[in-house]
Amino acid sequence: MKRQHLLVLIPLVFCFGQVQAERREFTYGVAAEIDTSGHVVSADLKATNVDDAFAQTVEGLVKQWQFHPAMASGAPATVSTTLTARVIVDIDAGHSAKVTAHYLGHDASLARLRSPPGYPQAAMRSKASAEVAVIATVNVEGKPVKVELYSLMMNIDDARLSKRFAAESMSTIGTWQFQPELVNGKPVTSRVIVPIKFSIKDGPVRDWKWIVKPPPESEFALDFDRQQPVALGNATGLELTSDGSQG
User: Fold this and answer.
1) Alpha-carbon distance 112 to 115, whole Å?
2) Is the C-alpha dihedral spanning 5, 8, 14, 16 positive or negative?
3) What is the pLDDT of residues 62-78, one digit of tens each?
4) pLDDT tens readout for residues 117-158
5) Which CATH class for the 110-228 domain?
6) Residues sharing a CB contact under 8 Å with residue 126, sequence separation 6 or more, in sequence order
């Protein structure tokens, strides 16, 4: 899906420290309500330690996004979802910031409180690092009813350790709680890809190897640093049509 964006100039009242010309990028989830005409009628930035002025700016941009509405029983439907936005802040020496909000997707959101996968002890002793992605099928109660391995990459070629990374990731994510998307107030099942990064501080840098490669027909750009889930498919049928910057 094409990434969309909006531009706005705001006073630099949120705290970025000493002002210098620079660019900063962030990825945020925004809890949103979309009405039957495809307008975003409410937006709530899901982030902590963010200045109110900055949060209001991002929420204002998201509210200008326009969607092709979801459909239910042949008629347009309302949707409650989490929109993912990549926010770019261009700071200038004049104490202003140009904020750009790129639409990345929408999906069921993770509950705030969740236990991260544990680092396998054998992998720690071997100073092994890994990037694991799993697919979770989430039911209408927000519970993963099926968890399967999507991809796995390691800095060493060790089948035994790869199985431990995969098992720890899948078993832990199977206990997570999601907030399902709602269509006309009713929850819908969905599938999400969850990226997990296992990294040891000051560990050796080695050549990374695919242990399990993702299917070539369904590769996604996954953010392992932020471990941001990505929707697999479109459970609601909601489609972005305009970011409001044209026309």
Assistant:
1) 10
2) positive
3) 999 999 999 999 999 99
4) 999 999 999 999 999 999 999 999 999 999 999 999 999 999
5) alpha beta
6) 156, 158, 161
Q: 67 near 106, Cβ under 8 Å?
A: no
CA quadruple 77, 81, 84, 88: dihedral sign? positive
- Asked if residue 194 lies in contact with residue 229, where contact means CB atoms within 8 angstroms, the answer is yes
Determine the 3-state secondary structure of 99 from DSSP. strand
Cα separation, 61 vs 110, in Å, equals: 23
For residue 52, give the H/E element and its range: helix 52-62
Rounded CA-CA distance 131/125 in Å is 17
Tokens representing residue 195 in the block: 């990226």
Domain boundaries, the chain: 7-107+235-242, 110-228
At position 104, the amino acid (one-letter code) is L
Asked if residue 149 lies in contact with residue 162, where contact means CB atoms within 8 angstroms, the answer is: no
Q: Which of 108-112, 208-212, 241-245 has the highest mean pLDDT?
A: 208-212
Structure tokens at 5: 């964006």
What are 237's two structure tokens?
A: 């049928």
